[in-house]
Amino acid sequence: MFLLTGDYVHQSPAYIEPVVEELGKLRPKIGTLAVLGNHDWWEDAALFRREFGRVGIPLLDNTRCILTPERKLVPKGREGLAIAGVGDLWEDRLDYQAALADLPEHMPRLLLSHNPDVAEEQRFIRGGHRVDLMLSGHTHGGQICLPGGIPVLTDCPAPRRLARGAWRFEDMHGYTSVGCGYSIIDARFHCLPEVTVHVLHSPATAEA
């Protein structure tokens, strides 16, 4: 699968249609799923929704789907992997109920959240929704970093813990990709671009 965590364009809505056109050419075995980021809202969220719909990529902002044991993406189900998404923390609403409520207790849950700060957002914590793995972007890993990849500045209030790579908050695992683009300045320093590959195993497979 391809899981896209937002910020597809920067500074101009003219790039929306060509960018989504290219993303629509991805050919995963199962499917591509996405959420929007703050830059996508700043340029034209409505146009993004229309274009993603045109190329057949579901947007999971404040909703979810189920990956069945047969590796099919369906709107509802009682077995498989729940893949949920929430709206952008800065520009959209965050409906945790719509994304995560009423799932079977045994079902593993993966959450796409553009901004990793959602892990410590008080409404999310008070809601008590279990998330096993959160995948995020937004920070560019700092983009300009000290040697060793230590971010100088990020748009994340907890830069050392949530800004890049693998992290854990209580029982939830997370990963913040540094992404492959730029913001503000067209440069990266001690922060190589990345497209992250996650390999997920069912408990039965892991034990075997």
Task: Kindly provide the name of the CATH class.
Answer: Alpha Beta
Global structural class: alpha/beta
What radius of gyration results from the CA coordinates? 17 Å
Number of domains: 1
Give a structural overview:
The chain has 208 residues and is an alpha/beta fold. Helix content is 22%, strand content 19%. The protein is built from six helices and eleven strands. It has a seven-stranded mixed sheet with strand order 4-3-5-6-7-11-10. Strands 1-2 form a two-stranded parallel sheet. It has a two-stranded antiparallel ribbon with strand order 8-9. The longest helix has 18 residues, at 38-55. The model has no long low-confidence stretch (mean pLDDT 91).
Topology of helices and strands:
Layout: E1 2-4, H1 16-23, E2 32-34, H2 38-55, E3 63-67, E4 73-74, E5 81-85, H3 96-100, E6 109-112, H4 122-127, E7 133-136, E8 145-146, E9 150-151, H5 159-162, E10 165-169, E11 172-176, H6 203-207
Parallel strand pairs: 1-2, 5-6, 6-7, 7-11
Antiparallel strand pairs: 3-4, 3-5, 8-9, 10-11
Helix pairs in contact: 1-2
